[in-house]
Amino acid sequence: MVATAVLAAGCGGPEMETPDAASPTSVAVTTSVPASATATTTIPVSTATTAEAAPTPTTTAAAAELPTTTTTVAPAETVEVIDPVGVGDSFYPGLGNPGYDVQHYEISLDVDPATNTIEASAAIVALAAEDLASFNLDLSGLEVHSVTVDGAHAAFSRSGHELSVQPADSLVAGSQFEVEVHYSGMPEPIMDPGVPFSEMGWLQRGGVIYTLGEPSGSMTWFPSNNHPTDKATYQIEITVPEGTTAASNGLLVAETADDGEATYTWRMDDPMASYLAAVYIGDFERIDHGPLHAGGPRLRDYVPRNAPAETVQALSVTPSVIAFLEERLGPYPFDAYGTIVMPFMLGLALENQTLSIHGPATIGPGIIAHEAAHQWLGNSVSPDDWSEIWLNEGFATYLHLMFEAEHYGADFDRTMADIHAWLTADGMGPPKGIEIRELFGPSIYFRGAATLHALRLHIGDNTFYEILRTHHNRSAGGTTNTEEFLGIVEEFAGPDAVDLLERWLYDQSVPPLPPAA
Ligand code: ARG
Ligand code: ZN
Question: Would residue 72 count as lying in a domain?
Answer without folding.
Answer: no
